[in-house]
Please model this.
Amino acid sequence: ELGVKFHGINILVDPELRQGIKEFSQWPTIPQLYVKGEFVGGCDIIREMFETGELEQLLKDKGVTLAHAA
Model:
Protein backbone atom coordinates (compact mmCIF):
# COMPACT_ATOMS: atom_id res chain seq x y z
CA GLU A 1 0.00 0.00 0.00
CA LEU A 2 2.96 2.33 0.38
CA GLY A 3 4.10 1.64 -3.18
CA VAL A 4 7.69 0.79 -2.28
CA LYS A 5 9.85 -1.00 -4.82
CA PHE A 6 11.41 -4.09 -3.26
CA HIS A 7 13.50 -7.14 -4.04
CA GLY A 8 12.30 -10.44 -2.63
CA ILE A 9 14.49 -13.49 -2.16
CA ASN A 10 13.01 -16.97 -1.74
CA ILE A 11 15.23 -18.45 0.96
CA LEU A 12 12.98 -21.50 1.35
CA VAL A 13 14.69 -23.18 -1.61
CA ASP A 14 18.05 -23.33 0.18
CA PRO A 15 18.22 -24.71 3.75
CA GLU A 16 21.71 -23.25 4.33
CA LEU A 17 20.59 -19.80 3.23
CA ARG A 18 17.45 -20.08 5.37
CA GLN A 19 19.50 -20.94 8.47
CA GLY A 20 22.15 -18.38 7.61
CA ILE A 21 19.69 -15.49 7.43
CA LYS A 22 18.25 -16.46 10.81
CA GLU A 23 21.74 -16.45 12.33
CA PHE A 24 22.68 -13.20 10.58
CA SER A 25 19.64 -11.34 11.88
CA GLN A 26 19.52 -13.20 15.19
CA TRP A 27 15.78 -13.57 14.46
CA PRO A 28 14.21 -17.05 14.40
CA THR A 29 11.41 -16.57 11.88
CA ILE A 30 10.89 -15.64 8.26
CA PRO A 31 9.85 -13.54 6.39
CA GLN A 32 12.21 -10.79 7.43
CA LEU A 33 12.35 -7.20 6.24
CA TYR A 34 15.59 -5.37 5.59
CA VAL A 35 15.70 -1.70 4.63
CA LYS A 36 18.92 -0.48 3.04
CA GLY A 37 20.70 -3.57 4.42
CA GLU A 38 19.44 -3.12 7.99
CA PHE A 39 17.21 -5.75 9.61
CA VAL A 40 13.89 -4.22 10.65
CA GLY A 41 11.88 -7.21 11.87
CA GLY A 42 9.63 -10.12 11.09
CA CYS A 43 6.10 -10.23 9.76
CA ASP A 44 4.25 -9.43 13.00
CA ILE A 45 6.50 -6.49 13.81
CA ILE A 46 6.27 -5.10 10.28
CA ARG A 47 2.47 -5.41 10.27
CA GLU A 48 2.27 -3.53 13.57
CA MET A 49 4.69 -0.87 12.32
CA PHE A 50 2.58 -0.43 9.17
CA GLU A 51 -0.64 -0.06 11.17
CA THR A 52 0.84 2.59 13.47
CA GLY A 53 2.56 4.53 10.68
CA GLU A 54 5.99 3.72 12.09
CA LEU A 55 6.99 1.76 8.98
CA GLU A 56 6.18 4.67 6.68
CA GLN A 57 8.26 6.99 8.85
CA LEU A 58 11.18 4.54 8.94
CA LEU A 59 11.13 4.27 5.16
CA LYS A 60 11.07 8.06 4.79
CA ASP A 61 13.92 8.41 7.30
CA LYS A 62 15.97 5.91 5.25
CA GLY A 63 15.34 7.87 2.06
CA VAL A 64 13.05 5.28 0.47
CA THR A 65 10.69 6.67 -2.17
CA LEU A 66 7.03 6.05 -1.40
CA ALA A 67 4.64 6.03 -4.36
CA HIS A 68 1.63 6.41 -2.09
CA ALA A 69 1.62 7.60 1.51
CA ALA A 70 -0.66 5.67 3.88
About this structure: The longest strand covers residues 38-42. Helices lie at 15-25, 43-52, 54-61.
